[in-house]
Automatic annotation (TrEMBL):
It comes from Manihot esculenta (Cassava). This is Chloride channel protein. Its main location: membrane. The keyword Signal applies. One of its GO terms (molecular function) is voltage-gated chloride channel activity. Coiled coil: none annotated. Residues 1-19 form the signal peptide. Keywords: CBS domain, Chloride, Chloride channel, Ion channel, Ion transport, Membrane, Repeat, Signal, Transmembrane, Transmembrane helix, Transport, Voltage-gated channel.
Length: 630
């Protein structure tokens, strides 16, 4: 409980953004949602130490999700040139100070996190491709592949160094964490039917798991909103409940005599092993204690051990399945860094082994392979990934002969679960209110046009604008982009000159490049700045409105916005289908999309579409008759 409180204090007081898995936040960031603090240095610190405390406190959580978030945080720190606040800055990293390079680095960081957590370098690349990124380029493929290759080499080196046991639990199993390759995977038609059944059950249990997590996280958010002390109290309650289950449930299991033909010690001495004595007499073991009184990795290793049909009794597997299933649900959402992979693999492997034990007389597959397929079906049912999960599990278990069955069970479980609800990470993204844009447009968007959802009133600047007007607008609105309109005498009629960003306006105002009269001075302004002055600032580094010190006299002066305007913004005509506009916005990775009028004689811009304007909540607020929710 002390360890649990330490993790909760870090999450509640230092970095609340570090709570949970972190994969939904990374996924949203790579979709274009730059939410505050999700990749900050404090979040990285709390993610690392909170994850260590949370896992060692005995919670049914994994380290894999937090490792993905950790990798993304390290990549973001490099991408913003380090941290000025903590005096960790590197000038040579300015090269990466733009959205695309930083996004690529974060993608590589997420892939490295998966590769390190599962020792699965190719699985890490495929995870980034399938689950994390919204925009994929061929250059990104080799970059992520290079990153995960380096991870594999470094891991290999440390595992070799730690083989003598001087690094605690690190290095167990070498690069293959759960080796089941000693079992020959021979199967017939009956086994295929059993595998399909596993997939269907995994899909149903996975969708139910997602439904329960959705309800639990909603309930916890009400408690967590009341303050840090309530977050810590909730962690203490769940910690006590987990400890009571872990210690209390093994009392229900009977003692089993040690098998005679064993190569390993029974009962187990030390902290890890397959035959825990618990409260049993000598030369006997408690099979439920062998699962509960081990690390999560060792519990999975026990379930995936081949050639041990009679080691775990059916009631034991049933109790362990419901315990890990229930504890996994109630633990997610509390204020500790918590991954979903391990609870799902534990629950899936236990029910897979349960089915395997029942089918021993009929099937030619080993129970350990049924446990592996059960874990795969449950992962497919909760996370809805296919290719990456398949490769990660094959790299974890070193059994290529299982590939056809693994593919089948993942496809069946995903198909079954998709008919009930969305994947767990998609649900959490929505729960957190992150405006995630799907790759496809929703059907209701076909009945609307771009001008239907434009939020008003539109605020625009002249090409040469009064300083006071700019300052007042920045104070009164939270907009990040403003259209710049050229008016007579500079042009014959009003026309859209371009788009200017809030961050660029602040940089321009801070330098005070003002003139007393309305005049253009394009070349003169840019000579006063360096290119990196307008580069994307890191978290909390950019010029803020409070940093500006502008006198009353300067308020009446003018500033030329042409040099810092994007003179070729993406525009759509007001009558364009909203579905087409949404696809354009998402595919090009835009932040602002200008809507221009169809007919002449009107103001040159109707409005600006942002990510918010495509959200179902916004559209249903404007048009309640639209069926925006399935």
């Amino acid at each position: 409980m002390i360890l649990a409180i330490a993790a909760a204090v870090l999450c509640a007081y230092v970095a609340p953004a570090a709570a949970g898995s972190g994969i939904p936040e990374v996924k949203a960031y790579l979709n274009g949602v730059d939410a505050p603090s999700i990749l900050a240095p404090t979040t990285l610190f709390v993610k690392i130490f909170g994850s260590i405390f949370g896992v060692s406190a005995g919670f049914v959580v994994g380290k894999e999700g937090p490792m993905v978030h950790t990798g993304a945080c390290i990549a973001s720190l490099l991408g913003q040139g380090g941290s000025r606040k903590y005096h960790l800055t590197w000038k040579w990293l300015r090269y990466f100070k733009n959205d695309r390079d930083r996004r690529d680095l974060v993608t590589c960081g997420a892939a490295a996190g998966v590769a390190a957590a599962f020792r699965a370098p190719v699985g890490g690349v495929l995870f980034a491709l399938e689950e994390a990124v919204s925009w994929w380029r061929s250059a990104l493929l080799w970059r992520t592949f290079f990153t995960t290759a380096v991870v594999a080499v470094v891991l290999r080196g440390f595992i070799g160094f730690c083989r003598t046991g001087k690094c605690g639990l690190f290095g167990e199993g070498g690069l293959i964490m759960f080796d089941v390759s000693s079992t020959k995977a021979t199967y017939d038609t009956l086994d295929l039917l059993a595998v399909i059944f596993l997939g269907v059950v995994g899909g149903i249990f996975g969708s139910l798991y997602n439904y329960c997590i959705d309800k639990v996280v909603r309930t916890y958010s009400i408690i967590n909103e009341r303050g840090p002390s309530f977050k810590i109290l909730l962690v203490i309650i769940i910690s006590l409940l987990t400890s009571c289950c872990s210690y209390g449930l093994p009392w229900l299991a009977p003692c089993i005599p040690c098998p005679a033909d064993l190569s390993e010690l029974c009962p187990t001495e030390g902290r890890s092993g397959n035959y825990k004595n618990f409260q049993c007499p000598p030369n006997s073991y408690n099979d439920l204690a062998s699962l509960f009184f081990n690390t999560n990795d060792d519990a999975i290793r026990n379930l995936l051990t081949p050639g041990t049909e009679k080691r775990f009794k059916l009631p034991t597997l049933l109790v362990f399945f419901f315990a890990t299933y229930g504890l996994g649900i109630i633990t997610y959402g509390i204020a500790i860094p918590s991954g979903l992979f391990i609870p799902v693999i534990l629950a899936g492997a236990s029910y897979g082994r349960l089915v395997g034990n029942l089918l021993v007389p009929l099937s030619s597959l080993d129970v350990s392979l049924f446990a592996l397929l059960g874990a795969a079906s449950f992962l497919g049912g909760t996370m809805r990934m296919t290719v990456s999960l398949c490769v990660i599990l094959l790299e974890l278990t070193n059994d290529l002969l299982m590939l056809p069955l693994m593919m089948l069970v993942l496809l069946v479980s995903k198909t079954v679960a998709d008919s009930f609800n969305k994947g767990v990470y998609d649900q959490i993204v929505k729960l957190k209110g992150l405006p995630y844009m799907e790759a496809h447009a929703e059907p209701y968007m076909r009945n609307l046009v771009a001008s239907d959802v434009v939020s008003g009133p539109l605020i625009a600047f002249s090409g040469v604008e009064k300083v006071g007007n700019i300052l007042h607008t920045l104070k009164m609105t939270g907009h990040n982009g403003f259209p710049v309109i050229d008016e007579p005498p500079y042009t014959d009629a009003a026309e859209l000159c371009g788009l200017v960003l809030r961050s660029h306006l602040l940089v321009l105002l801070k330098e005070k490049t003002f003139t007393k009269g309305r005049m253009m001075r394009r070349s003169g302004i840019l000579s006063m700045f360096k290119a990196h002055d307008f580069a994307k600032a890191g978290s909390g580094k950019g010029v803020k409105l409070e940093d500006l010190n502008i006198s009353e006299e300067e308020m009446e002066m003018y500033v030329d916005l042409h040099p810092i305007s994007n003179t070729s913004p993406y525009t759509v005509i007001e009558t364009m289908s909203l579905a087409k506009a949404a696809v354009l916005f998402r595919e090009l990775g835009l932040r602002h999309l200008c809507v221009v009028p169809k007919t002449p004689g009107r103001p040159p811009i109707v409005g600006i579409l942002t990510r918010h304007d495509f959200m179902p909540e916004h559209i249903s607020g404007l048009y309640p008759h639209c069926k925006t929710h399935k």
